[in-house]
Amino acid sequence: MKPALSQISRRRARKGGFSLVELVITMTIMTILVGVVSMRANGMTDKARAAKIVSTVEGLRTPVMMYHQDTNQLPYEYSGYQGGTYHRLSLDPGVANWDGPYIETPISRSWNPTGELIHMYNQAIPSYSGNNGFDIDGDGTQDVDQYDATTLVIWGIEEGVAEKVDRAFDSNLGGTWTDAGRVEYTAASRRMNIMIYNR
After folding, report:
1. What is the pLDDT of residues 16-51, one digit of tens each?
2. By the 8 A CB rule, do 154 and 125 touch?
3. Cis peptide before 63 (omega within 30 of 0)
4. What's the alpha-carbon Rg for the chain, to the nearest Å?
């Protein structure tokens, strides 16, 4: 005699749960999915950070040029400092012929996608490799002298992000990507120098 359908249902209900093999397979699939999603998300984050830096540099080029034309000086802006002395594009520094503001708000750490320091200097900041200017064409010689450029210096930038920024400005140049062209990068300090404007 066959057991009644209700008896079979009760036996299965008592057993319940999943087998060890089913749990292992499920956990393996979930681990793979989490890995794939996090790798893609990290890549998107790098692209977004690089895009923000490129956009910032492009957005500063015209204001820097206008400031230079008005005052015959190169401007500087320092995140974390207060007053016109440190924010020559956004606040009146008392310089003759200043006709700004050239940007709406002072440069701040929020302009850096990592939240670390970001400064715009009225000169090419020497890199740790000893460069005192920029090798714009990648031929190994300095094309822009130290005091003829406005440089955006951004700290806390990972190498992958810096390389994406470099490709946006300096694709197809000779030399190494870290010290040829408009973008210089020092991995030890995670510092990137980008020439915004040169006179």
Report:
1. 677 888 878 888 888 887 776 665 655 568 899 999
2. no
3. no
4. 27
Q: Is residue 75 within 8 Å of residue 89, measured between CB atoms?
A: yes
User: Taking a C-beta distance cutoff of 8 angstroms, is the pair 146, 132 a contact?
Assistant: yes
Name the DSSP class of 5. H
Question: Please, what is the angle between helix 159-170 and helix 20-71, to 10°?
Answer: 50
Which of the 8 DSSP states describes residue 175? Answer: S
Question: What secondary structure does DSSP assign to 90-144, as a single string?
Answer: TS----TT----SSSS---GGGSTTSS-EEEESSPPPPTT--SSB-TTSSSS--B
Say if residues 45 and 53 touch (Cβ distance below 8 Å). no
Which amino acid type is present at position 155?
W
Cα separation, 171 vs 93, whole angstroms: 37
165: Cβ contacts below 8 Å, ≥ 6 apart? 50, 53, 54, 157, 183, 192, 194
Per the CB < 8 A criterion, the answer to whether 72 and 98 are in contact is no
14/27 Cα distance (integer angstroms): 24
Q: Is-above-0.90 flag for pTM?
A: no
| Residue type, position 59, single letter | G
121, 64 Cβ separation under 8 angstroms: no
pLDDT tens-digit readout, 130-168: 556 788 888 888 888 888 899 999 999 999 999 999 999
